[in-house]
Amino acid sequence: MAKSTRARKVARRGAKRAKAPAVFDAAALREVALQFPDVEDATTDRGIAFTASGHLLVCAALHASAEPGSLVVRISREERPRLMAAHPRALYLTDHYVKHPAVLARLAQLDAAALRDVLGAAWLFVTEKAAGRKRGRSRSKR
């Protein structure tokens, strides 16, 4: 009987480990993200996040539909299919995120070059959008 009790405990411990969220490499993300101009670390108690020109660039995916350890990367809907085709194992969408200009990223599946590619596309999207807002404000003041 002692063996069967021990076996159940080991099985339970193994099950708990399998359900633990994947840990992505936040240091690698931080290093790549901060290489882009005007990017700042905006990490909070809720998770890792970075902004570009004051606008959200990338953050931890908190919605229940996202896989553990995923990030939400802001990207245009037009650019999203290209990036997803280029990095099919790393990038994905859930029904919740389809309507948003974003893609979900499994950071553990991205090497440094792929991470730069994805964040570079996000940086262009966010900073171009921010620049458009500034131009719109200056025109309305005239």
- Spatial order of strands in the largest sheet: 1-2-3-4-6-5
Helical content, roughly? 40-55%
Radius of gyration: 19 Å
Number of strands: 6
Structural class based on helices, strands and sheet pairing:
alpha+beta
Q: What top-tier CATH class fits best? A: Alpha Beta
The assigned CATH architecture is Alpha-Beta Complex
SSE string, helices as H and strands as E: HHEEEEHEHEH
CATH topology: Aspartate Aminotransferase, domain 1
Overall structural domain count: 1
Note the total helix count. Answer: 5
Q: How would you characterize this protein structure?
A:
The protein has a single domain, classed as Aspartate Aminotransferase, domain 1 (Alpha-Beta Complex). It contains 5 helices and 6 strands, in the order ααββββαβαβα. Helix 2 crosses helix 5. Strands 1-2-3-4-6-5 form a 6-stranded antiparallel sheet. It is 46% helix and 18% strand. With 142 residues, it is α+β, with helices and mostly antiparallel strands. The radius of gyration is 19 Å and the shape is globular.
Task: List its salient traits.
single chain; alpha+beta; Aspartate Aminotransferase, domain 1; 6 strands; 46% helix; globular
